[in-house]
């Protein structure tokens, strides 16, 4: 007999999976240690005017689907009326069958608003009005939305020049929610456009009160920001790169390369990589000293459509999986830090499923017994944070390392309505383990397996990030 859509056994194929999810996973709080939520909107407890504002603004996953369905750009990144935009998304949803957006959409409507109606062109008006009306209630502001999903910790993504005023102000409130910044210094080595880069470095100098003329000045300024972020509760850094590059000679060239940049000259491709390498090596050693976790999101090929980049800018849904060579330089980079015992706890996220085994075995090269799960193969990221992608990541990690030490899922999202992704992940995890039990591939030791589930979903991250 067919199961009902989004029933209590959604994604759970047998009684063991149901038991693991319901008794061990479902009620756990959420630690979301990597997302792109607005600290201002959290601190100010923003009220959204309508469901479009809360759900579609900034969501390039939905924009990609809408474009593929023939929806004009004005309903994605444009300024079309709120209901018209929502209606275009509603008419697109039936065409997202078997895309994770179909699951996420209906989980979000159900979990936040109690709406079990399938979203389509016929139901869009009713759902728009009901959800938008509910968003006007006090308990549907950002704090309420997070509370509904039992979100305990939020780690936002922040540039070194950010003053973190909202993090500091929020820390002084009586909220049970914890919000911490994450250090994202990508612009500190984004030298492709010298004029724009030098403007950024000047701003960094103004923020630190330090004139930045040399490479030493730059690293001292960034060290100052690391300590400032640390004082504001930061526990992690994050870098978004196509691939890691390492060449020992880069470390001696950084001073001259920075002078060249500050003189307004462009770097060659090789020089760009060398400068980036030298700066990331310094930053990684600083992370180790201060006790942070470092995260590297690797492998995305960004801004593929030049025409649309010019029209609507970055982070608008024109990115894809890349096919970069990852292993050799990544190994050299990690080994350089490990050689002097300056390798921080590290999470590596992979965007290309063909590299799963590379990443899973790479992290195991540098576990040293000092910390359980010191080196992490991160959760299915971006295009891989769907059912098959999560299963592949966890199966690979199980085969090559210790799934039981995994720090679990993150939303990596800009939306306050994205937290059912944690439920999605937890159901998939419980199903993987439950299925093994029912096939006789694992013993039916439910207390032990239940603890493994709880560790992956919550306990491991809490310990890893010292929360």
Keywords for this structure?
467 residues, alpha/beta, uronate isomerase, domain 2, chain A, 2 domains, 4-stranded parallel sheet, TIM Barrel, 19 helices, 3-stranded parallel sheet
Describe what you observe in this structure.
The chain has 467 residues and is α/β, with parallel strands linked by helices. The chain folds into 2 domains: 15-48 and 145-464, Metal-dependent hydrolases (TIM Barrel); 49-140, uronate isomerase, domain 2, chain A (Orthogonal Bundle). Helices cover 49% and strands 8% of the residues. Strands 4-5-8-9 form a 4-stranded parallel β-sheet, with helices on one face. The two termini are 45 Å apart.
Helices, strands, pairings?
Blueprint: H1 15-25, E1 30-32, H2 39-43, H3 51-55, H4 60-68, H5 82-92, H6 100-113, H7 124-134, H8 142-148, E2 151-155, H9 165-171, E3 178-180, H10 194-208, H11 215-231, E4 236-241, H12 250-262, H13 269-290, E5 293-298, E6 300-301, H14 306-312, E7 320-321, H15 327-339, E8 345-350, H16 356-364, E9 375-377, H17 387-400, H18 420-438, H19 446-464
Helix pairs in contact: 1-18, 1-19, 10-11, 11-13, 12-13, 16-17, 17-18
Cα gyration radius (Å): 23 Å
Going across the biggest sheet, name each strand in turn: 4-5-8-9
Residue runs with pLDDT of under 50 for 5 or more positions: none
Number of strands: 9
* Beta-strand percent range: 5-15%
Q: What's the shape?
A: globular
CATH topology of the largest domain: TIM Barrel
**What is the string of SSEs from the N terminus onward?**
HEHHHHHHHEHEHHEHHEEHEHEHEHHH
CATH superfamily of the largest domain: Metal-dependent hydrolases
For the residues shown, what is the average pLDDT? 97
Fraction in helix? 40-55%
CATH architecture heading of the largest domain: Alpha-Beta Barrel
Structural class: alpha/beta
| Annotation field: number of helices | 19
Tell me the domain tally.
Answer: 2
The CATH class assignment of the largest domain is: Alpha Beta
First and last CA, distance? 45 Å
> Largest sheet, described in full?
4 strands, parallel
């Amino acid at each position: 007999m067919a199961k009902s859509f989004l029933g209590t056994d959604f994604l759970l194929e047998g009684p063991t999976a149901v038991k693991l999810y319901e008794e061990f996973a479902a009620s756990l709080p959420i630690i979301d240690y990597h997302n792109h939520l607005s600290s201002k909107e959290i601190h100010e407890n923003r009220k959204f005017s309508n469901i479009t504002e809360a759900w579609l603004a900034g969501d390039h996953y939905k924009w990609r689907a809408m474009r593929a369905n023939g929806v004009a750009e004005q309903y994605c990144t444009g300024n079309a009326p709120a209901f018209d935009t929502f209606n275009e998304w509603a008419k697109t949803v039936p065409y997202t069958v078997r895309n994770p957006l179909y699951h996420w959409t209906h989980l979000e409507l159900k979990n936040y608003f109690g709406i079990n109606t399938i979203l389509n062109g016929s139901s869009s008006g009713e759902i728009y009005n009901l959800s938008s009306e509910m968003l006007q209630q006090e308990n549907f502001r950002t704090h309420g939305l997070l509370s509904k999903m039992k979100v305990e910790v939020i780690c936002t993504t922040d540039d070194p020049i950010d003053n973190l005023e909202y993090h500091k102000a929020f820390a002084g409130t009586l909220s049970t929610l914890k919000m911490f910044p994450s250090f994202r210094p990508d612009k500190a080595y984004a030298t492709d456009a010298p004029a724009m880069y030098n403007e950024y470095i000047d701003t960094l100098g103004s923020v630190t009160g330090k004139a930045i003329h040399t490479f030493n000045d730059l690293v001292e300024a960034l060290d100052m920001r690391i300590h400032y972020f640390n004082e504001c509760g930061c526990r992690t850094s994050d870098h978004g790169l196509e691939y890691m590059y390492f060449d020992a000679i880069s470390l001696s060239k950084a001073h001259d390369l920075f002078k060249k940049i500050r003189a307004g000259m462009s770097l060659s491709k090789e020089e760009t990589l060398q400068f980036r390498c030298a700066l990331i090596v310094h930053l990684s050693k600083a992370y180790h000293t201060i006790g942070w976790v470092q995260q590297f999101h690797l492998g995305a090929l960004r801004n593929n459509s030049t025409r649309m980049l010019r029209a609507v800018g970055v982070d608008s849904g024109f990115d894809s999986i890349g096919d970069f060579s990852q292993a050799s330089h990544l190994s050299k980079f990690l080994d350089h830090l490990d050689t002097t015992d300056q390798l921080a706890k590290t999470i590596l996220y992979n965007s290309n499923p063909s590299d799963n085994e590379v990443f899973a075995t790479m992290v195991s090269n540098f576990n040293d017994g000092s910390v359980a799960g010191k080196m992490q193969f991160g959760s299915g990221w971006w295009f891989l944070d769907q059912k098959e992608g999560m299963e592949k990541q966890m199966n690979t990690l199980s085969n090559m390392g210790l799934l039981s030490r995994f720090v679990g899922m993150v939303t990596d999202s800009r939306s306050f309505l994205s937290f059912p992704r944690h439920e999605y992940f937890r159901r998939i995890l419980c199903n993987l383990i439950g299925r093994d039990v029912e096939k006789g591939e694992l013993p039916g030791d439910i207390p032990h397996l239940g603890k493994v589930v709880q560790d992956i979903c919550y306990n491991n991250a809490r310990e890893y990030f010292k929360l």
